[in-house]
Amino acid sequence: MKKIALITGATSGIGLATARRLAQVGIDLILCGRRIDRLKELEQELGAIVKVKTLHFDVRAEAEVTAALQSLEGDWQNVTILVNNAGNAHGLSSIEEGNTADWDAMIDGNVKGLLYVSRAILPGMVERKTGHVVNISSIAGKETYRNGAVYCASKAAVEAISQGMRLDLTEHGVKVTNIAPGAVETEFSLVRFKGDAERAGKVYQGFEPLRPEDIADAVCYAVSAPAHVTIADMTILAGAQSQATTIFRNS
Ligand code: NDP
Ligand code: 8X3
């Protein structure tokens, strides 16, 4: 059966690189995000290699998620790989000064959004007795850093959800892979710092950060493993990184 991967957050960074990587190995794609112009460009680019469908919705809006995913027809309903990647950090501040709108965006997007998408896709995988979920967590889900309590909490939730999904889904033939990247240069810091490009750029100064393609390679490796192998958990740090915020910078 031809594989179909549904990737959330395909308009940028890790999701975009994953879309390109999975297209290279012939996997048809359902690409999701809020920015329609980028989805259309990607459809043009990757549609030359594999079949591509695009869906635009905000993962935080349950009704939007459900309506978009229920609109899939025919073979597009048979999603074999779900890459739960959409998410971001919003703000970086000490807990007593935190912006509650930022907290909502992180909890609603990184946690509830992942759950809404999964809830819509998983029954089909269970019914077909085959499937693979890849959750993009973070090193921030494995350790907490100062000023990042809520983002770290949202990613710790992803870690727990990955474990829980694996417990619930293994008997149904559905694999679950949790990938926890370290510092990857994407639009992540630009979003975290609300468009402040100078501040975002400093995050990646003085060392070579991960590239989104490094994480896309890991996704591709996990979903290409033979049936008797589950890649359960991968933590991928930059070469100069030993913990989330412990990075050896040469300048
Ligand atoms: P980007 O900002 O480059 O990409 C984020 C993607 O998520 C975009 O495609 C965006 O699409 C989508 N997205 C964000 N919020 C929503 C929403 N509410 N509804 C729908 N789509 C949404 O960042 P990254 O590629 O770095 O981030 C991807 C994932 O990787 C995130 O879960 C992040 O937490 C995680 N991660 C990132 C690391 C890093 O250092 N960069 C390290 C560890 C984990 P659009 O705006 O079009 O909706
Ligand atoms: C993104 C990586 O360490 O900046 O999840 O939180 S970190």
UniProtKB/TrEMBL annotation:
InterPro entries: KR_dom, NAD(P)-bd_dom_sf, Sc_DH/Rdtase_CS, SDR_fam. It comes from the Bacteria. Residues 3-182 form the Ketoreductase domain. PROSITE patterns: ADH_SHORT. Keywords: Oxidoreductase. The keyword Oxidoreductase applies. Belongs to the short-chain dehydrogenases/reductases (SDR) family. This is SDR family NAD(P)-dependent oxidoreductase. It comes from Ravibacter arvi.
